[in-house]
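Two records follow; treat each independently.
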Amino acid sequence: MSAHQVIDLDFYPPFEGFPRRGIAFLKQLRKNNRRDWFEKNKPDYESFVKLPMQSLIAALRPHFQSFAPEFEVNPKRSLFRIHRDVRFSKDKRPYKTHVAAHFVLRGKPKGTEGSGYYVHIEPGEVFVGGGIYMPDGEQLKKIRKKIAEQSADFLSIVKDPKMKRVFGVLEGERLQRIPKGYPPDHPMGEWLKYKQFFVGTSWPEGKCFKAGFTVDVARAFETAAPLVRFLNEAVK
Protein backbone atom coordinates (compact mmCIF):
# COMPACT_ATOMS: atom_id res chain seq x y z
CA MET A 1 0.00 0.00 0.00
CA SER A 2 1.37 3.39 -0.97
CA ALA A 3 1.70 6.35 1.37
CA HIS A 4 -1.03 8.06 -0.60
CA GLN A 5 -3.43 5.16 0.03
CA VAL A 6 -2.65 5.18 3.75
CA ILE A 7 -3.55 8.86 3.94
CA ASP A 8 -6.74 8.34 1.93
CA LEU A 9 -8.02 5.65 4.26
CA ASP A 10 -6.42 6.28 7.63
CA PHE A 11 -5.49 9.89 8.19
CA TYR A 12 -8.56 11.11 10.05
CA PRO A 13 -8.71 12.69 13.49
CA PRO A 14 -10.15 10.56 16.31
CA PHE A 15 -13.92 10.92 16.50
CA GLU A 16 -14.74 12.83 19.67
CA GLY A 17 -18.35 13.58 18.91
CA PHE A 18 -20.05 15.38 16.05
CA PRO A 19 -19.44 19.12 16.57
CA ARG A 20 -22.26 21.44 17.46
CA ARG A 21 -20.89 23.76 14.82
CA GLY A 22 -21.70 21.08 12.28
CA ILE A 23 -25.33 21.06 13.35
CA ALA A 24 -25.30 24.87 13.26
CA PHE A 25 -24.02 24.75 9.68
CA LEU A 26 -26.79 22.35 8.63
CA LYS A 27 -29.38 24.59 10.26
CA GLN A 28 -28.06 27.57 8.32
CA LEU A 29 -28.03 25.52 5.13
CA ARG A 30 -31.76 24.88 5.58
CA LYS A 31 -32.29 28.63 5.45
CA ASN A 32 -29.73 29.34 2.72
CA ASN A 33 -29.90 26.35 0.39
CA ARG A 34 -28.16 28.12 -2.49
CA ARG A 35 -24.89 27.52 -4.30
CA ASP A 36 -23.53 30.98 -3.62
CA TRP A 37 -24.08 30.65 0.14
CA PHE A 38 -22.66 27.14 0.23
CA GLU A 39 -19.52 28.07 -1.70
CA LYS A 40 -18.93 31.02 0.61
CA ASN A 41 -19.30 28.79 3.68
CA LYS A 42 -17.76 25.62 2.26
CA PRO A 43 -14.79 25.68 4.68
CA ASP A 44 -17.24 25.26 7.58
CA TYR A 45 -18.85 22.31 5.80
CA GLU A 46 -15.46 20.68 5.24
CA SER A 47 -14.29 21.23 8.84
CA PHE A 48 -17.44 20.74 10.90
CA VAL A 49 -19.61 18.36 8.84
CA LYS A 50 -17.64 16.33 6.29
CA LEU A 51 -14.44 15.67 8.25
CA PRO A 52 -16.20 14.70 11.53
CA MET A 53 -18.44 12.29 9.61
CA GLN A 54 -15.41 10.76 7.92
CA SER A 55 -13.79 10.42 11.35
CA LEU A 56 -16.90 8.60 12.58
CA ILE A 57 -16.70 6.22 9.62
CA ALA A 58 -13.02 5.54 10.31
CA ALA A 59 -13.82 4.93 13.99
CA LEU A 60 -16.47 2.36 13.01
CA ARG A 61 -14.04 0.18 11.05
CA PRO A 62 -12.76 -1.95 13.96
CA HIS A 63 -16.33 -2.52 15.11
CA PHE A 64 -17.36 -3.80 11.69
CA GLN A 65 -14.49 -6.28 11.83
CA SER A 66 -16.26 -8.04 14.70
CA PHE A 67 -19.76 -8.37 13.21
CA ALA A 68 -19.61 -7.64 9.46
CA PRO A 69 -16.03 -7.84 8.15
CA GLU A 70 -17.30 -8.33 4.59
CA PHE A 71 -18.47 -4.71 4.49
CA GLU A 72 -16.54 -1.77 3.12
CA VAL A 73 -16.06 0.98 5.71
CA ASN A 74 -14.29 3.74 3.83
CA PRO A 75 -14.34 7.39 4.94
CA LYS A 76 -14.41 8.52 1.32
CA ARG A 77 -16.70 6.00 -0.37
CA SER A 78 -19.12 5.37 2.50
CA LEU A 79 -19.96 9.07 2.87
CA PHE A 80 -22.87 10.37 0.81
CA ARG A 81 -22.31 13.56 -1.14
CA ILE A 82 -23.98 16.69 0.20
CA HIS A 83 -25.29 17.50 -3.28
CA ARG A 84 -28.85 16.48 -4.11
CA ASP A 85 -29.74 14.81 -7.40
CA VAL A 86 -32.31 17.27 -8.72
CA ARG A 87 -32.55 15.97 -12.30
CA PHE A 88 -35.97 14.38 -11.84
CA SER A 89 -37.21 16.34 -8.83
CA LYS A 90 -39.49 19.35 -8.60
CA ASP A 91 -37.48 20.37 -5.54
CA LYS A 92 -34.42 22.07 -7.03
CA ARG A 93 -32.64 22.90 -3.78
CA PRO A 94 -29.05 21.86 -4.50
CA TYR A 95 -27.98 20.51 -1.09
CA LYS A 96 -29.07 17.95 1.46
CA THR A 97 -29.52 19.32 4.96
CA HIS A 98 -28.23 16.17 6.64
CA VAL A 99 -24.98 14.23 6.45
CA ALA A 100 -25.15 10.48 5.90
CA ALA A 101 -23.09 7.34 5.43
CA HIS A 102 -24.08 4.04 3.84
CA PHE A 103 -22.11 0.83 4.30
CA VAL A 104 -22.35 -1.86 1.63
CA LEU A 105 -20.62 -5.12 0.77
CA ARG A 106 -17.19 -4.66 -0.75
CA GLY A 107 -17.43 -4.17 -4.49
CA LYS A 108 -21.05 -2.98 -4.39
CA PRO A 109 -22.21 0.58 -5.13
CA LYS A 110 -24.09 2.59 -2.52
CA GLY A 111 -27.80 2.48 -3.14
CA THR A 112 -29.87 -0.46 -4.32
CA GLU A 113 -27.58 -3.47 -4.70
CA GLY A 114 -28.04 -5.55 -1.61
CA SER A 115 -28.60 -4.90 2.05
CA GLY A 116 -26.48 -2.57 4.14
CA TYR A 117 -26.21 -0.16 7.07
CA TYR A 118 -27.08 3.53 7.19
CA VAL A 119 -26.58 6.44 9.59
CA HIS A 120 -27.43 10.10 9.20
CA ILE A 121 -27.22 13.21 11.32
CA GLU A 122 -29.42 16.28 10.91
CA PRO A 123 -30.57 19.12 13.14
CA GLY A 124 -32.88 17.61 15.73
CA GLU A 125 -32.39 13.95 14.89
CA VAL A 126 -30.02 11.05 14.32
CA PHE A 127 -31.19 8.02 12.33
CA VAL A 128 -29.52 4.60 12.37
CA GLY A 129 -30.70 1.50 10.56
CA GLY A 130 -30.06 -1.42 8.27
CA GLY A 131 -31.67 -3.47 5.53
CA ILE A 132 -32.61 -2.99 1.90
CA TYR A 133 -34.55 0.12 0.93
CA MET A 134 -34.99 -0.10 -2.86
CA PRO A 135 -34.84 -3.74 -3.99
CA ASP A 136 -35.52 -4.32 -7.67
CA GLY A 137 -38.03 -6.88 -8.90
CA GLU A 138 -35.56 -9.74 -9.08
CA GLN A 139 -34.21 -9.04 -5.62
CA LEU A 140 -37.75 -8.96 -4.22
CA LYS A 141 -38.50 -12.37 -5.70
CA LYS A 142 -35.36 -13.84 -4.15
CA ILE A 143 -36.04 -12.30 -0.73
CA ARG A 144 -39.63 -13.53 -0.68
CA LYS A 145 -38.51 -17.00 -1.75
CA LYS A 146 -36.03 -17.16 1.12
CA ILE A 147 -38.61 -15.89 3.61
CA ALA A 148 -41.08 -18.57 2.46
CA GLU A 149 -38.49 -21.36 2.52
CA GLN A 150 -36.64 -20.32 5.68
CA SER A 151 -39.53 -18.86 7.65
CA ALA A 152 -38.26 -20.00 11.05
CA ASP A 153 -34.90 -18.28 10.53
CA PHE A 154 -36.58 -15.09 9.32
CA LEU A 155 -39.03 -14.97 12.22
CA SER A 156 -36.27 -15.58 14.74
CA ILE A 157 -34.57 -12.43 13.40
CA VAL A 158 -37.51 -10.02 13.17
CA LYS A 159 -39.04 -11.20 16.44
CA ASP A 160 -35.79 -11.26 18.39
CA PRO A 161 -36.35 -9.33 21.66
CA LYS A 162 -33.21 -7.23 21.22
CA MET A 163 -34.11 -6.37 17.63
CA LYS A 164 -37.58 -5.27 18.75
CA ARG A 165 -36.18 -3.30 21.69
CA VAL A 166 -33.68 -1.39 19.56
CA PHE A 167 -35.66 -0.94 16.35
CA GLY A 168 -39.27 -1.95 16.92
CA VAL A 169 -40.91 -3.65 13.95
CA LEU A 170 -39.69 -4.36 10.44
CA GLU A 171 -40.40 -1.34 8.25
CA GLY A 172 -41.12 -0.86 4.57
CA GLU A 173 -43.94 -0.37 2.09
CA ARG A 174 -46.26 -3.32 1.61
CA LEU A 175 -48.59 -4.71 -1.00
CA GLN A 176 -52.31 -4.85 -0.31
CA ARG A 177 -52.40 -8.53 -1.29
CA ILE A 178 -50.07 -11.49 -1.10
CA PRO A 179 -47.85 -11.45 -4.23
CA LYS A 180 -48.51 -13.72 -7.18
CA GLY A 181 -47.06 -17.19 -6.88
CA TYR A 182 -48.08 -17.65 -3.24
CA PRO A 183 -51.43 -18.94 -1.95
CA PRO A 184 -53.62 -16.35 -0.21
CA ASP A 185 -53.46 -18.34 3.03
CA HIS A 186 -49.67 -18.71 3.04
CA PRO A 187 -48.48 -18.73 6.68
CA MET A 188 -45.87 -16.07 5.88
CA GLY A 189 -48.31 -14.04 3.83
CA GLU A 190 -48.04 -10.81 5.82
CA TRP A 191 -44.25 -10.84 5.51
CA LEU A 192 -44.36 -11.64 1.80
CA LYS A 193 -46.31 -8.42 1.21
CA TYR A 194 -43.28 -6.29 2.04
CA LYS A 195 -41.66 -4.38 -0.83
CA GLN A 196 -38.86 -3.00 1.39
CA PHE A 197 -37.11 -4.66 4.30
CA PHE A 198 -35.37 -2.47 6.83
CA VAL A 199 -35.20 -1.49 10.47
CA GLY A 200 -34.32 1.91 11.87
CA THR A 201 -34.46 4.06 14.93
CA SER A 202 -34.29 7.80 15.60
CA TRP A 203 -32.26 9.27 18.43
CA PRO A 204 -32.12 12.79 19.86
CA GLU A 205 -29.64 15.14 18.23
CA GLY A 206 -27.60 15.36 21.43
CA LYS A 207 -26.55 11.72 21.24
CA CYS A 208 -24.15 12.45 18.39
CA PHE A 209 -22.18 15.08 20.35
CA LYS A 210 -20.53 12.43 22.54
CA ALA A 211 -17.44 10.39 21.71
CA GLY A 212 -19.42 7.28 22.69
CA PHE A 213 -21.68 7.84 19.68
CA THR A 214 -19.40 5.50 17.72
CA VAL A 215 -20.19 2.63 20.08
CA ASP A 216 -23.92 3.46 20.04
CA VAL A 217 -23.99 3.28 16.24
CA ALA A 218 -21.90 0.11 16.15
CA ARG A 219 -24.16 -1.65 18.66
CA ALA A 220 -27.25 -0.74 16.66
CA PHE A 221 -25.62 -1.99 13.46
CA GLU A 222 -24.62 -5.23 15.17
CA THR A 223 -28.23 -5.75 16.28
CA ALA A 224 -29.37 -5.29 12.67
CA ALA A 225 -26.63 -7.59 11.31
CA PRO A 226 -28.70 -10.84 11.25
CA LEU A 227 -31.37 -9.14 9.11
CA VAL A 228 -28.79 -7.55 6.80
CA ARG A 229 -27.04 -10.92 6.40
CA PHE A 230 -30.31 -12.81 5.74
CA LEU A 231 -31.23 -10.35 2.99
CA ASN A 232 -27.79 -10.43 1.37
CA GLU A 233 -27.79 -14.23 1.36
CA ALA A 234 -31.14 -14.07 -0.44
CA VAL A 235 -30.07 -11.71 -3.23
CA LYS A 236 -26.54 -12.97 -3.91
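The next record belongs to a different protein.
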Amino acid sequence: MPGPQLFALGALVMLALVLAAWVLMLRTGNAAWVDVAWGFGMGALALLFAALGPGWRPRRELVGLLGGLWGLRLGLHLALRTAAEGREDARYTRLRQAWGGNLPLKFLGFFLFQGLLDLALAWPFLAACLDTQARLPGVAWVGAALWALALAGEALADAQLRRFKAGPAGREQVCDRGLWRFSRHPNYFFQWLAWVGCFLLALPAPLGWTTAASPLLILFFLLRVTGIPATEEQALASRGEAYQRYQRTTSPFIPWFPRRLPHA
Protein backbone atom coordinates (compact mmCIF):
# COMPACT_ATOMS: atom_id res chain seq x y z
CA MET A 1 0.00 0.00 0.00
CA PRO A 2 1.42 3.46 -0.89
CA GLY A 3 2.58 5.68 1.95
CA PRO A 4 -0.21 8.32 1.84
CA GLN A 5 -2.95 5.65 1.87
CA LEU A 6 -1.21 3.78 4.66
CA PHE A 7 -0.97 6.95 6.72
CA ALA A 8 -4.67 7.69 6.12
CA LEU A 9 -5.59 4.17 7.25
CA GLY A 10 -3.46 4.67 10.36
CA ALA A 11 -5.29 7.92 11.07
CA LEU A 12 -8.64 6.08 10.90
CA VAL A 13 -7.38 3.43 13.32
CA MET A 14 -6.26 6.11 15.78
CA LEU A 15 -9.56 7.97 15.41
CA ALA A 16 -11.46 4.80 16.31
CA LEU A 17 -9.24 4.15 19.35
CA VAL A 18 -9.46 7.65 20.81
CA LEU A 19 -13.21 7.83 20.24
CA ALA A 20 -13.60 4.51 22.05
CA ALA A 21 -11.49 5.88 24.92
CA TRP A 22 -13.63 9.04 25.00
CA VAL A 23 -16.81 6.98 25.26
CA LEU A 24 -15.23 4.99 28.10
CA MET A 25 -14.38 8.26 29.82
CA LEU A 26 -17.99 9.44 29.54
CA ARG A 27 -19.25 6.18 31.06
CA THR A 28 -16.66 5.81 33.84
CA GLY A 29 -15.69 9.43 34.57
CA ASN A 30 -12.03 8.45 34.14
CA ALA A 31 -10.04 10.26 31.46
CA ALA A 32 -7.00 7.99 31.96
CA TRP A 33 -8.44 5.68 29.28
CA VAL A 34 -6.80 7.99 26.76
CA ASP A 35 -3.42 6.73 27.99
CA VAL A 36 -4.55 3.17 27.26
CA ALA A 37 -5.58 4.20 23.74
CA TRP A 38 -2.22 5.92 23.30
CA GLY A 39 -0.28 2.78 24.19
CA PHE A 40 -2.38 0.37 22.14
CA GLY A 41 -2.41 2.92 19.31
CA MET A 42 1.36 2.88 18.94
CA GLY A 43 1.38 -0.90 18.76
CA ALA A 44 -1.51 -0.92 16.29
CA LEU A 45 0.24 1.55 13.99
CA ALA A 46 3.47 -0.48 14.05
CA LEU A 47 1.58 -3.66 13.15
CA LEU A 48 -0.49 -1.91 10.48
CA PHE A 49 2.50 -0.33 8.75
CA ALA A 50 4.45 -3.59 8.98
CA ALA A 51 1.62 -5.64 7.51
CA LEU A 52 0.70 -3.34 4.62
CA GLY A 53 3.84 -1.34 3.89
CA PRO A 54 5.68 -1.86 0.58
CA GLY A 55 9.14 -2.01 2.16
CA TRP A 56 11.59 -4.88 2.55
CA ARG A 57 9.80 -7.65 4.43
CA PRO A 58 12.45 -8.50 7.08
CA ARG A 59 12.61 -4.84 8.12
CA ARG A 60 8.81 -4.59 8.28
CA GLU A 61 8.67 -7.75 10.40
CA LEU A 62 11.19 -6.25 12.80
CA VAL A 63 9.13 -3.07 13.12
CA GLY A 64 5.95 -5.08 13.64
CA LEU A 65 7.55 -7.31 16.26
CA LEU A 66 9.22 -4.60 18.34
CA GLY A 67 6.54 -1.93 17.91
CA GLY A 68 3.69 -4.38 18.42
CA LEU A 69 5.23 -5.83 21.60
CA TRP A 70 6.00 -2.36 22.96
CA GLY A 71 2.48 -1.04 22.38
CA LEU A 72 0.74 -4.20 23.55
CA ARG A 73 2.74 -4.31 26.80
CA LEU A 74 2.21 -0.63 27.54
CA GLY A 75 -1.47 -0.71 26.65
CA LEU A 76 -2.13 -3.75 28.85
CA HIS A 77 -0.14 -2.26 31.73
CA LEU A 78 -2.09 1.00 31.58
CA ALA A 79 -5.46 -0.73 31.09
CA LEU A 80 -4.95 -2.98 34.13
CA ARG A 81 -3.76 -0.05 36.23
CA THR A 82 -6.65 2.19 35.18
CA ALA A 83 -9.22 -0.52 35.86
CA ALA A 84 -7.67 -1.52 39.19
CA GLU A 85 -7.25 1.96 40.66
CA GLY A 86 -10.88 2.90 40.17
CA ARG A 87 -10.10 6.59 40.39
CA GLU A 88 -8.91 9.19 37.93
CA ASP A 89 -5.27 10.18 37.71
CA ALA A 90 -4.58 13.53 39.41
CA ARG A 91 -3.41 15.01 36.09
CA TYR A 92 -6.91 14.73 34.66
CA THR A 93 -8.56 15.88 37.86
CA ARG A 94 -6.55 19.08 37.63
CA LEU A 95 -7.58 19.49 33.99
CA ARG A 96 -11.24 19.23 34.98
CA GLN A 97 -10.74 21.92 37.60
CA ALA A 98 -8.87 24.20 35.19
CA TRP A 99 -11.27 23.78 32.26
CA GLY A 100 -14.50 24.37 34.14
CA GLY A 101 -17.58 23.72 31.99
CA ASN A 102 -18.25 21.88 28.73
CA LEU A 103 -15.84 19.11 29.77
CA PRO A 104 -16.97 16.35 27.36
CA LEU A 105 -16.20 18.51 24.31
CA LYS A 106 -12.90 19.76 25.75
CA PHE A 107 -11.79 16.24 26.56
CA LEU A 108 -12.77 15.14 23.07
CA GLY A 109 -10.37 17.72 21.66
CA PHE A 110 -7.69 16.55 24.09
CA PHE A 111 -8.20 12.89 23.10
CA LEU A 112 -8.04 13.75 19.39
CA PHE A 113 -4.78 15.58 20.00
CA GLN A 114 -3.38 12.43 21.63
CA GLY A 115 -4.30 10.52 18.48
CA LEU A 116 -2.47 13.08 16.33
CA LEU A 117 0.53 12.77 18.62
CA ASP A 118 0.55 8.99 18.09
CA LEU A 119 0.56 9.51 14.33
CA ALA A 120 3.44 11.98 14.54
CA LEU A 121 5.50 9.74 16.80
CA ALA A 122 4.88 6.74 14.52
CA TRP A 123 6.67 8.38 11.58
CA PRO A 124 9.80 6.19 12.12
CA PHE A 125 7.59 3.07 11.88
CA LEU A 126 6.13 4.24 8.59
CA ALA A 127 9.46 5.40 7.13
CA ALA A 128 11.10 2.06 7.90
CA CYS A 129 8.18 0.12 6.42
CA LEU A 130 8.28 2.17 3.21
CA ASP A 131 12.01 1.50 2.69
CA THR A 132 12.46 -1.02 -0.16
CA GLN A 133 16.23 -1.41 0.23
CA ALA A 134 16.93 -5.11 0.79
CA ARG A 135 19.48 -4.62 3.57
CA LEU A 136 19.72 -3.77 7.23
CA PRO A 137 22.81 -1.59 7.87
CA GLY A 138 24.70 -1.61 11.15
CA VAL A 139 22.98 1.53 12.44
CA ALA A 140 19.61 -0.18 12.01
CA TRP A 141 20.79 -3.19 14.02
CA VAL A 142 21.93 -0.82 16.76
CA GLY A 143 18.50 0.79 16.68
CA ALA A 144 16.75 -2.57 16.95
CA ALA A 145 18.97 -3.54 19.91
CA LEU A 146 18.24 -0.24 21.67
CA TRP A 147 14.52 -0.71 21.04
CA ALA A 148 14.62 -4.22 22.54
CA LEU A 149 16.61 -2.94 25.54
CA ALA A 150 14.09 -0.13 26.04
CA LEU A 151 11.18 -2.57 25.92
CA ALA A 152 12.79 -4.72 28.62
CA GLY A 153 13.83 -1.73 30.74
CA GLU A 154 10.42 -0.06 30.68
CA ALA A 155 8.69 -3.34 31.54
CA LEU A 156 11.08 -3.92 34.45
CA ALA A 157 10.63 -0.38 35.80
CA ASP A 158 6.83 -0.68 35.66
CA ALA A 159 6.94 -4.08 37.37
CA GLN A 160 9.21 -2.81 40.16
CA LEU A 161 6.96 0.19 40.83
CA ARG A 162 3.81 -1.94 40.76
CA ARG A 163 5.36 -4.39 43.24
CA PHE A 164 6.43 -1.55 45.54
CA LYS A 165 2.98 0.08 45.50
CA ALA A 166 1.37 -3.24 46.39
CA GLY A 167 3.53 -3.50 49.53
CA PRO A 168 2.97 -1.94 52.95
CA ALA A 169 5.18 1.09 52.18
CA GLY A 170 3.57 1.85 48.83
CA ARG A 171 1.24 4.61 49.98
CA GLU A 172 3.55 6.76 52.12
CA GLN A 173 7.12 6.06 51.05
CA VAL A 174 9.01 6.67 47.81
CA CYS A 175 10.04 3.82 45.54
CA ASP A 176 13.83 3.99 45.41
CA ARG A 177 14.52 0.35 44.65
CA GLY A 178 15.77 -1.36 41.53
CA LEU A 179 15.91 0.97 38.54
CA TRP A 180 14.16 3.64 40.62
CA ARG A 181 17.32 3.95 42.72
CA PHE A 182 19.17 5.37 39.72
CA SER A 183 16.43 7.47 38.11
CA ARG A 184 13.25 9.09 39.39
CA HIS A 185 11.58 8.19 36.09
CA PRO A 186 13.25 5.12 34.55
CA ASN A 187 10.01 4.20 32.77
CA TYR A 188 10.06 7.52 30.94
CA PHE A 189 13.78 7.19 30.17
CA PHE A 190 13.30 3.80 28.53
CA GLN A 191 10.21 5.08 26.71
CA TRP A 192 12.37 7.80 25.17
CA LEU A 193 15.16 5.29 24.44
CA ALA A 194 12.67 3.22 22.45
CA TRP A 195 12.16 6.17 20.12
CA VAL A 196 15.89 6.64 19.73
CA GLY A 197 16.01 3.02 18.64
CA CYS A 198 13.11 3.60 16.20
CA PHE A 199 14.94 6.57 14.73
CA LEU A 200 18.16 4.59 14.20
CA LEU A 201 16.23 1.72 12.61
CA ALA A 202 14.54 4.13 10.20
CA LEU A 203 17.62 6.29 9.55
CA PRO A 204 18.84 4.41 6.42
CA ALA A 205 15.43 4.90 4.74
CA PRO A 206 14.83 7.74 2.27
CA LEU A 207 14.25 10.86 4.38
CA GLY A 208 15.11 8.72 7.39
CA TRP A 209 16.92 11.64 9.02
CA THR A 210 13.55 13.40 9.43
CA THR A 211 12.44 10.68 11.86
CA ALA A 212 14.73 12.31 14.44
CA ALA A 213 11.72 14.55 15.12
CA SER A 214 10.01 11.66 16.96
CA PRO A 215 12.55 11.14 19.80
CA LEU A 216 12.87 14.92 20.11
CA LEU A 217 9.09 15.33 20.30
CA ILE A 218 8.57 12.65 22.94
CA LEU A 219 11.52 14.01 24.93
CA PHE A 220 9.88 17.45 24.98
CA PHE A 221 6.57 16.03 26.21
CA LEU A 222 8.24 13.84 28.83
CA LEU A 223 10.48 16.57 30.24
CA ARG A 224 8.28 19.64 29.86
CA VAL A 225 4.61 18.79 29.43
CA THR A 226 2.71 15.66 30.49
CA GLY A 227 5.47 13.41 31.79
CA ILE A 228 7.86 14.38 34.55
CA PRO A 229 6.35 17.77 35.58
CA ALA A 230 2.87 16.37 36.27
CA THR A 231 4.21 13.21 37.93
CA GLU A 232 6.55 15.10 40.22
CA GLU A 233 3.89 17.63 41.18
CA GLN A 234 1.63 14.79 42.29
CA ALA A 235 4.46 12.99 44.10
CA LEU A 236 5.38 16.13 46.04
CA ALA A 237 1.75 16.66 47.02
CA SER A 238 1.34 13.09 48.28
CA ARG A 239 4.78 12.31 49.73
CA GLY A 240 6.16 15.71 50.67
CA GLU A 241 9.57 15.71 52.39
CA ALA A 242 10.29 12.11 51.44
CA TYR A 243 10.02 12.96 47.76
CA GLN A 244 12.01 16.17 48.18
CA ARG A 245 14.85 14.10 49.61
CA TYR A 246 14.50 11.67 46.70
CA GLN A 247 14.79 14.62 44.30
CA ARG A 248 18.01 15.73 45.97
CA THR A 249 19.66 12.34 45.68
CA THR A 250 18.37 10.79 42.46
CA SER A 251 18.79 11.69 38.80
CA PRO A 252 15.54 13.01 37.32
CA PHE A 253 15.76 11.13 34.01
CA ILE A 254 18.98 9.47 32.83
CA PRO A 255 19.89 6.63 35.22
CA TRP A 256 22.94 7.45 37.33
CA PHE A 257 24.36 6.64 40.73
CA PRO A 258 22.50 8.40 43.58
CA ARG A 259 24.18 11.28 45.42
CA ARG A 260 25.02 11.07 49.10
CA LEU A 261 23.50 13.77 51.27
CA PRO A 262 25.60 15.25 54.09
CA HIS A 263 24.52 14.18 57.54
CA ALA A 264 22.70 16.85 59.52
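Discussion point: The radius of gyration is 19 Å. How would you locate this feature using only the C-alpha coordinate line?
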